[in-house]
Write a structure and sequence with these properties.
26 strands, alpha+beta, seven-stranded mixed beta sheet, about 550 residues
């Protein structure tokens, strides 16, 4: 039996292709999902690409990866690099005009130590979390990390200073020893020649900033050699190494209302300048100094009866007096001011006029200015206003709109004048004749000294001729004889009567020898040569006859 084969058609697609097809579908879905959910590409301008690697360097927000660097290329002007990065879609809403990028790397300075965690993990690009503002995809990175992270509670301030040095971002703001803020950035205004700073005060210290707050410099160590003495000022240990400022409210001044963001304040040189800034009005006066002004400085105090009421504004004000210091009898003009607020008056025009009227009356009567030395060590001078006794009333003088306060000599000048008077009297003395007399006296003294020296030499020679040993020998012999005599007397030698008889015999003998000694005294050679003289006639009594006996 013949059976015919049945031919069945086979499928054109093998089941084996199901797996590749499924893989393609899954892959396509993944690609579509990745394309649909991937974030945008952004470009960031940086100074250099140091520490950045393609497909490795991440972009982080609060240490969370939200993107990665995809490409690096040079800028067309060769002034930096442009980094292209992919940002995750869930972070794309942070790409606004207020977003900042910066490079995080190890950074060590006087004011901060940061980025040390990147020593092991590597550098990365940090991004601020700020979703306010319009959408933006091209950014210029900051040169350094921002001092204050966005969203930090506190107060932003605008400060300005005309000091000879500038504060750097990160320099501290100190209050009573605590760091409560920092400088964020700085810019220089060429037209005003003033440096402007953006600073941040942390909460809750920002409540201390009011409309009457004053800021001043406390950088390093300040040594002030003023008329009041030596004064040393310093801030905290941090400000010894870096620049820094502090703030406060002047004593006796109300705090005022709190300020808002970006309020502007000035940075003063020191606490004194900051305190004086509260006085807006001042009366200016001119002093004409006939003496030296060495030791007088701008800012030196002006005192009345020991109380500071003002300060020196300028020395040698050329616009006040015509001429120059080389002219004979040219007075040096010194400009001072007097604050109404320092004489317990209000800081208003009425009090200012009251001060001017009072000063005008006193100047015409007896008010005088004197330069006095405030400290012997520094030699600093200050202006002292006093009522001088015995002065004649005058009519106040006005030069170039400034009333002139008459001056009197200070103590040093008076001492100098007295010394000059003494020297003049010395010059009037007859010094030439006095010098001649002194020279003659010196010659006499020299001759007397020579005579004394000669006498001393003769005495020395006489003393040399004396035999000290012979004298000692004779004294010893006398003492020995005396001892023998006393011993003989004590042992029963001559009795007292016998000694008395011996002494009487010696006196008789000496009495008999007295005429001979008298003759030898009158004529020493009488014993050798005879003069054939007769025997001395003894005087006799007068006879009773008419004639006397003829000799």
């Amino acid at each position: 039996m013949n059976e015919q084969a049945q031919v069945k058609p086979t499928t054109r697609i093998s089941k084996v292709w199901i797996i590749p097809i499924l893989a393609v579908l899954v892959g396509g879905w993944m690609v579509y999902y990745q394309w649909k959910n991937q974030g945008p590409l952004i470009t960031i301008e940086l100074k250099s690409a140091a520490g950045i690697e393609v497909n490795k360097t991440p972009i982080k927000v609060r240490d969370l990866d939200i993107g990665q660097v995809k490409n690096i290329e040079l800028k067309p002007d060769l002034n930096g690099v442009i980094v292209t990065a992919r940002i995750d879609a869930n972070a794309s809403h942070l790409l606004t005009e207020n977003t900042d990028f910066w490079m995080v790397a190890p950074r060590i300075s006087f004011s901060e130590v940061s980025g040390l965690n990147t020593l092991l993990s590597g550098s990365y690009i940090a991004m601020s979390a700020d979703d306010s503002g319009g959408e933006q995809y091209h950014f210029v990175a900051l040169e350094r990390p921002p001092v204050t992270p966005p969203g930090t509670p506190g107060l932003h301030l605008a400060l300005k200073s005309d000091d000879r040095f500038a504060y750097k971002p990160g320099d501290p703001i100190i209050y009573k020893g605590f760091k409560i803020g920092e400088f964020e950035d700085a810019s220089f205004d060429i037209d005003e020649r003033v440096v402007y700073y953006n600073a941040f005060i942390e909460a809750p210290y920002h409540k201390l900033i009011t409309e009457n707050t004053r800021f001043w410099n406390v950088s390093g160590v300040k040594l002030h050699l003023k008329s009041s003495g030596v004064k040393i000022e310093t801030g905290s240990l941090e400000t010894l190494l870096t620049n820094g400022i502090t703030f406060g409210i002047p004593e006796g001044f109300p705090a005022g209302e709190q300020v808002g963001d970006n309020a502007t304040f000035r940075i003063f040189q020191d606490a004194t300048a900051a305190s004086n800034a509260r006085y807006r009005l001042a009366a200016e006066y001119l002093l004409l100094i006939d003496e030296t002004v060495r030791g007088l400085t701008v800012g030196a105090p002006v005192e009345y009866r020991g109380i500071e009421i003002g300060e020196v504004l300028a020395i040698n004000v050329t616009s006040a007096v015509n001429g120059n210091i080389l002219d004979e009898n040219y007075p040096i003009p010194v400009l001072i001011n007097i604050y109404p607020g320092k004489v317990r008056q209000q800081d208003n025009p009425e009090s200012l006029q009251f001060v001017k009227d009072t000063m005008h009356k006193w100047i015409g009567k007896d008010l005088r200015a004197t330069l006095r030395m405030g400290n012997v060590l520094t030699g600093g001078l200050y202006v002292d206003l006093q009522h001088a006794p015995g002065v004649e009333p005058i009519e106040p003088q006005i030069l170039n709109g400034h009333e002139v306060i008459p001056t009197v000599s200070n103590e040093f000048t008076q001492i100098t004048q007295k010394a000059d008077a003494i020297l003049d009297k010395l010059n009037e003395l007859p010094l030439n004749s006095m010098i001649g007399d002194v020279q003659s006296v010196i010659v006499d003294l020299k001759e007397a000294a020579n005579s004394v020296e000669t006498t001393s030499n003769d005495f020395d020679a006489l003393m040399e001729d004396i035999d000290v040993k012979d004298i000692n020998r004779n004294l010893n012999q006398v003492l020995a004889n005396m001892s023998s005599l006393l011993k003989n007397y004590s042992e029963g030698g001559l009795s007292k009567s016998e000694i008395q008889e011996t002494v009487d015999a010696m006196q008789d003998t000496l009495r008999n020898l007295q005429p001979l000694l008298l003759q030898l005294n009158q004529k020493p050679n009488g014993l050798i040569f005879s003069d054939n003289s007769s025997v001395d006639i003894q005087p006799k009594a007068q006879s009773k006859g008419v004639f006397d006996e003829k000799p």
